[in-house]
Design brief:
The chain has six helices and eight strands, in the order βββαββαβαβαβαα. It is α/β, with parallel strands linked by helices. β7, α4 and β8 form a beta-alpha-beta unit.
Length: 249
């Protein structure tokens, strides 16, 4: 598909971002990422070794930054201060890397975003020249505020993190898409290829391949334009002309 995704001045042929934190080992992580075709991989700095734990296997050995765009994120952070500190560490470990994913959680039960703290962290990170992709609620007003703060992509949740519930509120997501000019990437809660999470699948590599196909098919369908939905307006799917009548001649 000649329809590249543009984020922070860089183009990507894949519209699928894939996490790296829940696989049984780094070998399975690499296999799933390769099968998915994803070019951007998210990395939870607090849970995945990218050099901070010396003497232990590093993800960098399995997914070279020369081939993949790393997206360090702040999973597990509940305050703006903690999130900013975590991404400063990521930039140091990744030799000045600027593209990051910000998430500031509200509580450990729902993992719903704390939007006041998220906005505070976003503003600080932008001041420090980070290119911020941001996990947020599916609120179009909050999305506009984050865009105004300088975020390079908005990532509203489809449903709660890890729930696998899929897209629960497509109407709010459409409002977000309509209200901001930066890319909007649906985040959190996806559980299978028809939703468009991989690591928790029974066969993560096979699920990764399915995700790749689903994202490509979904994008092509969007570009083609779906048929309009009509309530109580039944129309035959085949032409009525020339059909055999049951009426006697």
């Amino acid at each position: 598909m000649n329809d590249a995704l543009l984020i922070a001045g860089k183009t990507y042929t894949s519209r699928l971002l894939i996490g790296t934190g829940k696989y049984k080992d780094f070998a399975e992580t690499r296999a799933a990422v390769e099968a998915s075709g994803a070019q951007i991989v998210t990395v939870a700095i607090r849970r995945t070794n990218i050099g901070q734990n010396r003497g232990e296997p590093s993800l960098l050995e399995y997914l070279p930054p020369s081939k993949y765009t790393y997206l360090p994120n702040t999973a597990g952070c509940y305050t703006a201060q903690d999130a900013v500190r975590t991404l400063r560490l990521a930039r140091e470990l990744l030799d000045g890397h600027e593209l990051v994913k910000l998430e500031v959680l509200g509580d450990p039960h729902t993992l719903y975003p704390n939007m006041p703290e998220t906005l505070k962290a976003a503003e600080q990170l932008v001041k420090e020249n980070f290119k911020v992709m941001v996990y947020c609620s599916d609120d179009p007003i909050q999305a506009q505020m984050l865009e105004a703060a300088g975020c390079v992509a908005i990532m509203p949740l489809a449903s709660l993190i890890g729930s696998g519930m899929g897209i629960l509120n497509p109407w709010n997501l459409q409002l977000v898409i309509d209200k901001v000019k930066v890319p909007v990437l649906v985040d959190a809660g996806v559980g299978t290829a028809s939703d468009a999470a991989i690591a928790a699948a029974r066969n993560p590599v096979q699920m990764a391949r399915a995700m790749k196909k689903a994202v490509e098919a979904g994008r092509e369908a969007f570009l083609a334009g779906r048929m309009p939905k009509k309530l109580y307006s039944a129309q035959p799917s085949s032409p009525a002309e020339g059909t055999i009548s049951s009426k006697a001649a």
